[in-house]
Amino acid sequence: MNFQAVKSIYYFEMARFFRTLLQSFVSPVISTSLYFIVFGTAIGSRIDQIEGVSYGAFIVPGLIMLTVMTQGISNASFGIYFPKFIGTIYEQLSAPVNFLEIVLGYAGAAATKALFIGLVILGTSAFFVDLSIQHPWAMAGFLILTCVSFALFGFIIGIWAKNFEQLQLIPLLVVTPLVFLGGSFYSVSMLPPIWQKITLFNPVVYLVSGFRWSFFGTADVPVGLSLLAIAGFCALCMVVVWIIFRTGWRLRS
Amino acid sequence: MTAMVEISELRKTYQSGFEALKGVSLEIREGEILALLGPNGAGKTTLISAICGISVPSSGTIRVGGYDTITDYRAARKLIGLVPQEINLEPFQKVIDAVRFSRGLFGCKRDDVYVERILRQLSLWDKRDAKIMELSGGMKRRVLIAKALSHEPRVLFLDEPTAGVDVELRRDMWDIVAKLKADGVTIILTTHYIEEAEAIADRIGVINKGELLLVEEKTALMTRMGRKELVVELQEPVESLPEALSGYDLDLIEEGRALRYTYDTSADRTGITKLLSDISATGLVLRDIRTRQSSLEEIFVGLLQENAA
Ligand SMILES: Nc1ncnc2c1ncn2[C@@H]1O[C@H](COP(=O)(O)OP(=O)(O)OP(=O)(O)O)[C@@H](O)[C@H]1O
Ligand SMILES: [Mg+2]
């Protein structure tokens, strides 16, 4: 295992993050505040409580999940796509590293960034609503697993993408709709019965539900199922990454 | 000398179906400088990419320092430094960070003393904190070299290191290569400047259309393939060649002011003594005599023409 290489890639990616720390910090703070103003205050004032939680507090886990997923994907996909695009990838390809080390470096850094931003949102939320976390360990576990899985997913997208359009395509066309329809801002139980059924095919529902359970102790689906879903997704991404590594797909000509 | 790089029956067919290497076998000796010559699209970069792990060979084997580049890729690649043909660098990175990054990627611990030495050697030390996008093209090329040397490689591939580089930097580059050779580094470089190969290489390989036409000691190649010219300048110009000299391979040049005799340096007898005495027998008065060795460039062009025929 070439740990020096993992460290190098990780530091390099984090350096990019720290160069733009202010942006990395300010933009989630602003967007979170906006969500609270729009959803929490304007709409929330007309919605009483959902399952005994004020609407403002209710959307916090969903908001964190939404951001963590999109950040994990965009950071990791951009991180690996950019060297491909400008040609510096030759160095990673000619270095004594295997794919696992490259993945650890890129996806590890992307997951770290997503985690950081998730925590910033959590902190910002605390200014707007009263938050209590009933199961902090489960919360941390769900959060980290989600960061890692979606960083891996983003890494796969970055390898697959042949141009910037493709890089944006999956997050825009698949992930954002799934996240918005995944119960981030509402409880699945609020939907008409037929949609409640359809929604269960959306994997994001399980993540948001499980994460929300760790905050408030209530869930749309059993928490064990949530854990299974996120662990399953993480495993699936790992398998795909491993296959890419075996075949050198889209990397080595 | 032992072989540092052993390539056997290497073939590379790109996904497009194009066969860029058609069974190349080559041994590169430890500590030598090998220049690879060949026209655009000959397969030079493809060959280097296959050795360095950037592309996967379709068939054949490559060993570097005795390690197979596929099955023992870690050991093999640690020995290799690569300066690619294209200038591919992260624009926002600082020079020194770029070099440290490469070092780490190759599994070496951070070593500021060594990195400083390299940057000084390449006259980049003053620019160590500059962003790469703030550098000139020649400086960027030096950054590529610094990155390639960051992990103290034993074999260095330079893919057209002097393309688009001014005369001074080219000389610097040659000096750097000479120093590396003195440290025992094996160097493979590709170039379109034949005088470059002539100036610094120990051996020369010629590639054309994915085939290695020859690999030979530079001096041996030049004597074997070399034609030499003897130019005899005359005191008074002549209209035509005298009858008595018709048996020689002579041309009248410079408006009748000189005779050019072409001969093979490797032949047993060059016939110069007899020619000169025959010339003086005709009564022509000689003003000066000079000889010229045909350059590698002429040899190279001749080879490609032969290959095309
Ligand atoms: N990725 C690729 N896919 C398909 N064909 C390729 C690819 N890369 C190179 N080739 C083809 O392979 C041949 C050899 O290319 P290569 O880059 O090795 O040439 P070269 O000798 O380095 O030329 P130059 O002096 O221009 O750098 C060319 O005909 C080129 O078009
Ligand atoms: Mg080339």
TrEMBL record, chain A:
It is a multi-pass membrane protein. Keywords: Cell membrane, Membrane, Transmembrane, Transmembrane helix, Transport. Pfam families: ABC2_membrane. One of its GO terms (molecular function) is ABC-type transporter activity. GO terms for cellular component: ATP-binding cassette (ABC) transporter complex. The keyword Transmembrane helix applies. It is found in: Cell inner membrane; Membrane. The chain crosses the membrane at residues 20-43, 55-82, 102-129, 141-161, 167-188, 225-245. The keyword ATP-binding does not apply. Residues 19-248 form the ABC transmembrane type-2 domain. Its main location: membrane. Belongs to the ABC-2 integral membrane protein family. NCBIfam families: PRK15066.1. This is Transport permease protein. It comes from Primorskyibacter sedentarius. The lineage of its organism: Bacteria, Pseudomonadati, Pseudomonadota, Alphaproteobacteria, Rhodobacterales.
Automatic annotation (TrEMBL), chain B:
InterPro entries: AAA+_ATPase, ABC_transporter-like_ATP-bd, ABC_transporter-like_CS, ABC_transporter_ATP-binding, P-loop_NTPase. Keywords: ATP-binding, Nucleotide-binding, Transport. The keyword ATP-binding applies. Residues 5-234 form the ABC transporter domain. GO terms for molecular function: ATP binding; ATP hydrolysis activity. Transmembrane segments: none annotated. The keyword Transport applies. SMART domains: AAA. This is ABC-2 type transport system ATP-binding protein. It comes from Primorskyibacter sedentarius.
